[in-house]
Design a protein that fits this description.
heterodimer; A: 492 residues; 19 helices; 50% helix; globular; B: 1122 residues; mainly beta; five-stranded mixed β-sheet; 6% helix
Chain lengths: 492, 1122
């Protein structure tokens, strides 16, 4: 009898264990709550990462491709990109779309909270980012983009024209929103939360976007609308208003190239096209953008030599007798980028006051707006000089290449040339704009691998073929082959 | 099969044929008893003992019984009529054993009469294997395939990583090692890959019934620091392993539940049970490792470009001296300034002072003046500069164990010391393992057991892997001038600038390899405990309850130091990673066993388990050091950065299960099991999932009462069907925002790019398996065959999305992957004589993993037809209708026979030719094409064991045939002019007008009218080789057939006769010469195709990313006991 009782108790224990096991799944929901990360954060915590990420990518792409293809810089080693042997260039694509999720999160959140300033800033960023994407690749996902949460896994690619229409409309909305609510914006590393300046950036970007598509439609009325009411549509009024990001002296907020290997920095050299131009104009910006040849750097008579773009490796390295006789890129973009002066020059650039002035000069010269083209032109050059802490001499404009004289085309060429110089280290924008204007005239790289054509776009990321194949294919059918020579809508 | 196999096949087929004919011949001679005993001079006192072995019950003669003279390495086998003859001395003990019978011992006396030995059928010597939950089962009753590896096969010819030792020994098991020289990770897959998530294809490791972690953790490549710290199961000590049982299929593993989806590797540790009284044993292996294979470097041209070089500052100040490639002058002994040439100031050419403004002022003119003028030295080839860099590794392991048992209980205590220095300089590993196992019978009804392993490991430095400045192979295979005498970089500080500036051959891009290994170390220490305690209570002889608790605790600390002047960390850095991982399992099993009738046996069980995993991680880096040479977080010059987003993870699974085995007449067995798991990682409404297994084993030979002495001694058929569910990682149900590196000191967050799914369902995989086990000629030939088919569906995986959708991936239930394959094991004993035997074991397996379905969006109806599993140089992609492991990439544009193609050739003459552009370079396909698959077509291991008296010889060949590997060594080795291929086109230098120089690609160009003509554009060698992959884009030319054969293991052992030791208690003294990975046959150039690459915690097979060379080892093993 005792044994049976004993057995029964043991059985009860087992049954108890069983219930314990099934029963204690009750706290499983709690166990599976992620304690490591919040499920919601406010806009001020989302903003910094977006701004830094996009700016760093734009600077990186400028360094690696933009400054090269636009012939500001040239390479003396590992010359593939300089010879237009381009593979995928996914930096812009990835950064734009990876960060757009948080841009949209800010928009949704600020709409819910009535935070118009945050929303306005997010819209400006959104427009700038989408313009980068479409200018780099052509047709890209836009209206369907960033909607996986809503079930859209395969966003269609929108036509570039539709994207630009959207950008222009949203910039206008952003202008209206900015300053219409009272919340203080935190986490903004571009303007430190200065909403008025964001408003200026919104409108300046609108000018850029209008000019970008000006081959396709008459943008005069829109431009005139902006310029007619500086109270409603404020623009940049000085370099202080420029959309730039100032890096810091120490990691992780340094100028991106500061940590590059010496060789990785020095395989980029002064481009002959830009260096010769600066030399011929006796341009005071030269010694900031470039260094004398290493051979003459410490001697009394410094010598500046740029190398032609796109030679093969052997010829590039041996050009002019070797690297000792080829000018390097300015120190302010490398080891001196953390000096007080370097911090004022080596900046992350969205858009500068100088660029706006050149855009307006072009618009005025073409009669799209009223105003004096020459004033805009000189303001642009002066702003560019000021950016480097220099003042342009009066004599600068007395040279045949800079004097604002000649036919309309000659004047446009002069505006374009100065704009090209002013866009130094803003290679992507320089390239985007050059594709439209063709100014200055650039000769394709010496030993290029692209049948003497300067590339006009990036390949779509290879992964798009895998991940969004049908949409990608539709875009290719509409736009043309997925290669670096296919003209996108606004260039056609 | 490729050429190597043809050559190799010669040997192997001959071997196989010999083997088969021996079997055939032996079969014909029906294994007459070994009457021709020992013709060699016998000791005087030997007497001839004759006898007969019969069944104690039926009195039938028993053939095939083994008669051994204990301690003498002598013995024989009973013949068909049960008779035997053996020579022994008076006082010797004969042991008579036969599978399925209780063995017997007889002491030989003077004038012994013919013996009649009656064997009783019994449990004792039945083939017993350990199955799921640690339950011992008679092998013949199992309805599924298992395979065992004896501990002795692991602890002689050994590897630091236990898992690596399994290669070639078990059919259906694929092991891929990630070479680093000191026990780095091994990736195991059993019966192919079931999961589309490349990280979730590894089996569960279970030690003494309790799971342990096999995580491959935290190997984040952040800031280029890709280091392999080993997989979790690597630390199990071979000396403490009794057996390893591989449960291959779901049928076998179902009782372990979801975690056993990919099979189980069941490790049983040694106990004192088999040691009567007290025994001491000692086992030691000392082995030497060296590099198995290095690339074939070219030795005709040194550093430089266009045939020119002269060193000034290694930074571009001289002639091509900033160039790190080998397109420089030919070696003619001419005098050139070099980095290691002496200078007029008694320094070296490379002692040029500081070049980093971050470290201090740079005044090159002044620095060069301080260095002095370089005195040029001869420009000569350095064919062994890399080979000599690698050292001879030394691995020592010493194990001492004490064990004992009596009727109250048993114990075993073992200590093992492992000390390894790698082939890569300044890499090492030390490991102390203390193992205790014990059992106590507390009362006739209550038994308790425990097994605990404590492991303390330490490495001062593990080498960096993967393509990047931190890996020395990045230099050696790609960017080290062939003229560079590596040994002259051994003094790696610049004269007078210790702790500040490294000295090297190139300051533009590279770190001195010695500096890299001696200053920039990746250290590791860990303390790990795993073990369990169990108690079993027998209520009655039929009913018992077992309760068990087990745990696996790992505390690991990793420190990565980077010194000043490191290319990627100019101001140095210091990173600390702490990993605390605990898994606890509590389980119970109630078991009831009874004979229902004379014919039916029943065994039912009911059990439960609760599992809890908790991980705590921290990963912090001091990005720059304030004071050089001080490696501490407190020495950070700037704000510390946190590198992990998951400091804490927790997961629980509760389970209940029931099992039942019904046996009929000892020849038909039916097993069924049911298990329900509840996982905390799944949504509450689909948290629990039920699955089942059913197996049938039918012992044909017993059922039909075949004569065990006939041609077929044993035959069994088995069939099994099983279903296993699976859960996922924690925290996959709710959207979170991850902290980012602060921006200008402000905190920063970003929404996770992985879109979670609150409606996840458990994964389900269903498998059937069938097979047979047939043994012929008294078990001298055994064939085990298995066929399986596994369908895995509802896989929980982050399916990649275009980031234009806003997310990089969404977690879904998707996919249907079918794995089917066959496994064959052959066990052959061609010769079994008293003094000589030859055993052969062959493992063969072939698996096909096919992607049947991926995902159809239930809302939009959109279908995903391909899934990107991993991307590193190649795209590993799963496409519907294709195989798992397929690798895609850009290929050569070829002339097509498709009229739609832009490269259509209506004449058909040029179809298939590579098309070149007007510049003489191949044209790339616009889209990626399939370039191969990293899974081999089949695997085979052939293990031979010879025994002659006390002498034994064993060797194991491991074959992997089929499959492809991408080689980054080939891609970049060409760019750098390092590998011998780059001599093509520069037979006589660089001048294209000289014959032998220049390369014209073989193929065609398309003319303006669409026709094709031969490509005749000649490129310089450098132009050709640097654009061989069009800037690492077109990879078709660098994907190779990865087939290989390795001489995996060789053992030559001698056991001293115990009588040598007289009355001392020393016994079984064995000395063995052991070797591993001694030879490699393959067509893949430069590299060992058995490789993988690591990338952010993922091991990607089929991709060689300038891997460290694998090693061959030679050693001596000594073991004996008291």
């Amino acid at each position: 009898m005792y044994d049976m009782k004993h057995l029964f108790i043991k059985f009860l224990a087992v049954v108890g264990l069983t219930f314990a096991i099934t029963g204690c799944t009750k706290d499983f929901d709690e166990v599976n709550q992620n304690p490591n990360a919040p499920t919601a954060v406010n806009s001020s915590l989302l903003l910094p990462q977006i701004e830094r990420d996009v700016i760093n990518t734009v600077m990186g792409e400028a360094w690696g491709i933009g400054n090269i293809v636009i012939q500001h810089n040239a390479k003396n080693q590992f010359v593939n990109e300089d010879r237009y042997l381009w593979g995928e260039q996914n930096g812009i694509w990835n950064t734009v779309y990876d960060n757009m999720r948080d841009v949209n999160n800010i928009i949704a959140q600020s709409e819910a909270n009535g935070e118009n300033n945050y929303k306005g800033i997010a819209l400006v960023l959104r427009c700038w980012m989408f313009s980068l994407a479409t200018d780099a690749y052509g047709d890209v996902p836009y209206s369907d983009a960033i909607q996986a949460k809503e079930g859209e896994n395969y966003p269609k690619y929108d036509a570039q024209e539709d994207i630009y229409n959207g950008i222009l409309a949203e910039l206008k909305v952003a202008n209206d929103l900015l300053g219409s609510s009272s919340e203080v914006v935190a986490g903004d590393i571009i303007y430190g939360g200065d909403v008025a300046k964001w408003k200026r950036l919104a409108n300046s970007l609108r000018v850029r976007s209008l000019m970008r598509i000006s081959r396709k439609r008459d943008v005069g009325a829109d431009l005139r609308e902006i310029l007619a009411d500086a109270g409603k549509y404020p623009l940049f009024e000085s370099n202080d208003d420029s959309g730039v990001y100032t890096f810091l002296t120490s990691s992780p907020d340094q100028f991106p190239l500061y940590a590059a290997r010496i060789g990785s920095f020095n395989e980029f050299r002064a481009g002959k096209t830009l260096l010769d131009t600066l030399n011929s104009l006796d341009d005071a910006r030269l010694p900031i953008l470039f260094r004398p040849t290493p051979d003459t750097e410490t001697s009394d008579t410094t010598d500046y030599v740029g190398i032609p773009n796109g030679m093969n490796d052997v010829n590039a390295l041996e050009y002019n007798g070797g690297p000792q006789f080829q000018s390097r890129i300015g120190n302010v973009f490398y080891e001196e980028s953390i000096t007080p002066y370097g911090l004022t020059v080596a900046k992350g650039i969205i858009m500068t006051f100088a660029e706006l002035q050149f855009l307006l000069a072009e618009a005025a010269e073409k009669g799209l707006i009223s105003g004096d083209a020459e004033t805009f032109y000189k303001n642009g050059v002066s702003a560019s000089y000021n950016f480097y802490g220099l003042n342009v001499s009066d004599g600068f404009f007395n040279q045949p290449e800079t004097e604002f004289t000649g036919t309309q085309q000659e004047k446009l060429n002069k505006i374009g040339l100065q704009k090209w110089i002013s866009l130094y280290y803003n290679g992507l924008e320089a390239w985007f704009d050059w594709r439209r204007t063709g100014i200055p005239f650039l000769t394709p790289a010496v030993s290029n691998q692209n049948d003497d054509r300067i590339p006009v776009r990036f390949f779509y990321p290879l992964s798009e073929e895998k991940l969004n194949g049908d949409s990608n294919e539709d875009a290719i059918q509409r736009q043309g082959p997925n290669d670096i020579n296919t003209k996108m809508w606004h260039l056609k | 099969m490729k050429a190597v196999y043809q050559t190799f096949k010669g040997t192997c087929c001959a071997l196989a044929l010999t083997l088969l004919s021996v079997v055939a011949v032996s079969a014909q001679t029906a294994f007459t008893p070994a009457a021709n005993i020992s013709p060699t001079s016998p000791p005087v006192e030997l007497i001839k003992v004759t006898g007969k072995v019969i069944d104690a019950v039926s009195s039938e003669p028993l053939a095939g019984a083994t008669i051994t003279v204990i301690g003498q390495n002598r013995g024989t086998i009973s013949s068909v009529d049960g008779s035997f003859v053996v020579e022994a001395a008076a006082g010797d003990v004969l042991n008579v054993s036969l599978i399925g019978f209780v063995s017997q011992s007889v002491t030989v006396t003077q004038n012994v009469a013919p013996l009649v030995i009656k064997l009783e059928e019994g449990e004792g010597l039945k083939e017993v294997v350990v199955t799921a939950l640690g339950i011992s089962r008679e092998k013949k009753s199992l309805g599924y395939a298992t395979q065992e590896v004896d501990g002795d096969d692991l602890n002689k010819a050994r590897e630091t990583n236990l898992v690596s030792t399994l290669a070639g020994k078990v059919a259906g098991v694929t092991i891929v090692n990630n070479p680093s020289g000191i026990g780095s990770s091994a990736r195991v897959t059993i019966r192919g890959e079931r999961s589309l998530n490349i990280n979730r294809n590894q089996p569960l490791f279970v030690v003494d019934g309790v799971p342990i972690s096999n995580d491959f953790r935290g190997n984040s490549g952040s800031s280029y620091q890709d280091t392999d710290y080993g997989n979790g199961a690597a630390v199990v000590n071979p000396d403490d392993v009794e057996t390893i049982t591989v449960l291959k299929g779901a049928s076998a593993a179902a009782l372990y539940g979801s975690r056993a989806n990919n099979g189980v590797i069941l490790i049983t540790t040694k106990s004192g049970k088999n040691t009567k009284g007290l025994g001491l044993s000692f086992n030691s292996t000392v082995s030497f490792e060296n590099v198995l294979r290095l690339p074939d470097y070219q030795n005709q041209y040194g550093q430089g470009l266009g045939g020119n070089f002269n060193f000034v500052d290694g930074n571009g100040g001289g002639t091509a001296d900033g160039v790190d490639e080998s397109w420089g002058p030919a070696f003619n002994g001419q005098l050139l300034d070099q980095f290691d040439s002496p200078t007029s100031n008694g320094l070296r050419g490379g002692d040029v002072g500081n070049l980093f403004t971050a470290i201090g002022p740079v005044d090159l003119d002044q620095q060069l003046a301080a260095r002095g003028a370089i005195e040029a030295t001869p420009w000569v080839s350095r064919p062994d500069n890399i080979k000599n860099f690698f050292e001879t590794g030394l691995t020592q392991t010493y194990n001492v164990a004490a064990a004992g048992s009596n009727d109250k209980g048993d114990f075993r205590l073992s200590y093992t010391w492992l000390d390894q220095t790698g082939t890569v300089p300044n890499t090492d590993l030390k490991r102390n393992t203390l193992a205790f196992a014990g059992g106590l019978t507390l009362s006739p009804k209550l038994r308790v057991r425990t097994a605990i392993n404590y492991i303390n490991g330490k490495s001062d430095n593990r080498p960096n892997l993967s393509y990047g400045t931190e890996n020395i192979m990045y230099l050696f295979n790609c960017w080290l001038g062939r003229s560079v005498d590596v040994s002259s970089m051994r003094d790696y500080w610049m004269e007078g600038r210790e702790d500040l500036n490294q000295y090297g051959f190139n300051y533009n891009y590279h770190d001195n390899p010695y500096f890299n290994l001696y200053e920039n170390t990746n250290g590791q220490t860990y303390n790990r405990i795993f073990g369990n305690v169990s108690a079993t209570y027998d209520f009655t002889s039929k009913l018992s309850l077992m309760v068990r608790g087990g745990t696996d605790v790992n505390n690991e600390f990793r420190a990565r130091r980077r010194a000043y002047s490191t290319q990627r960390f100019v101001r140095g850095s210091y990173r600390e990673e702490r990993i605390n991982f605990t898994e606890t399992n509590l389980d119970f099993l109630l078991n009831y066993r009874t004979a229902l009738s004379e014919r039916f046996d029943l065994n039912v069980g009911f059990g439960g388990n609760t599992m809890r995993q908790v991980g705590q991680f921290s990963d912090v880096i001091a990005p720059e050091l304030a004071v050089p040479g001080i490696f501490a977080l407190s020495n950070s010059r700037v704000a510390l950065q946190n590198l992990t987003n998951t400091p804490y993870t927790e997961k629980r699974i509760n389970s209940l299960y029931g099992t039942g085995q019904l046996g009929f007449n000892n020849y038909l067995y039916l097993d069924v099991s049911l298990r329900n798991d509840w996982s905390s990682t799944l949504p509450s409404d689909s948290r629990g999932y039920l699955y089942y297994a059913a197996n049938l084993s039918f012992v044909l030979s017993d059922a039909l009462q075949w004569d065990p002495n006939g041609a077929i001694s044993f035959a069994k058929l088995r069939f099994g069907v099983a279903q296993v569910g699976n859960d996922t990682d924690p925290y996959q149900l709710e959207t979170i925002y991850n902290a980012q590196t602060p921006v200008q000191g402000s905190p920063s967050y970003s929404e996770s790019s992985v879109l979670v799914n609150p409606d996840l369902k458990p994964e389900i995989s269903t498998s059937i398996e069938t097979g047979f086990d047939v043994r012929f000629f008294q078990n001298r030939l055994g064939v085990d065959f298995a066929y399986y088919n596994t369908q895995s569906k509802n896989q929980i995986l982050p399916i990649s999305l275009t980031n234009a959708s806003g997310y990089s991936a969404r977690i879904i239930n998707a996919g249907l992957i079918q794995n089917q394959g066959i496994e064959v094991t052959l066990n052959i004993t061609p010769i079994r004589k008293q003094n000589f035997s030859w055993d052969v074991a062959v493992n063969f397996s072939r698996n096909r993993s096919e992607v049947k379905e991926l995902f159809k969006d239930p809302v939009s109806g959109q279908e995903i037809t391909s899934y990107l599993m991993a991307s590193r140089y190649v795209l590993v992609e799963a496409r519907i209708g294709e195989q798992m492991g397929d690798m895609y990439g850009i290929g050569y544009q070829r002339v097509s026979d498709d009229p739609e193609s832009a490269y259509y050739d209506p004449t058909g003459q040029n179809v298939g030719q590579i098309v070149y552009n007007s510049q003489g370079k191949p044209i790339a396909t616009p889209n990626t094409i399939k370039l191969g698959n990293y899974n081999p077509d089949y695997l085979m291991g052939i293990n031979n064991n010879f025994r002659y008296k006390g002498l034994s010889l064993g060797f194991l060949f491991d074959f992997r045939v089929g499959g492809e590997v991408y080689s980054h060594t080939q891609t970049v080795g060409r760019e750098g002019g390092q590998i011998k291929e780059t001599l093509e086109g520069r037979a006589n230098g660089y001048d294209l007008s000289v014959e032998g120089n220049g390369v014209t690609g073989e193929g065609v160009v398309q003319n303006a009218d669409g026709t094709f003509s031969a490509n005749n554009t000649e490129l310089t060698a450098r132009e050709w080789h640097t654009s061989y992959t069009l800037g690492r884009r077109l990879i078709e030319g660098v994907v190779y057939d990865a087939s290989f054969v390795k001489l995996r293991e060789l053992r030559l052992g001698y056991t001293l006769p115990n009588k040598l030791f007289g009355n001392s208690s020393l016994r079984d003294f064995t000395v063995s010469l052991v070797g591993r990975n001694l030879a490699l046959w393959t067509d893949v150039p430069h590299i060992d195709p058995e490789t993988s690459s690591t990338s952010g915690g993922t091991v990607i097979p089929g991709v060689e990313s300038v891997a460290l060379p694998s090693v061959r080892s030679w050693g001596v093993n000594v073991n004996f006991r008291f």
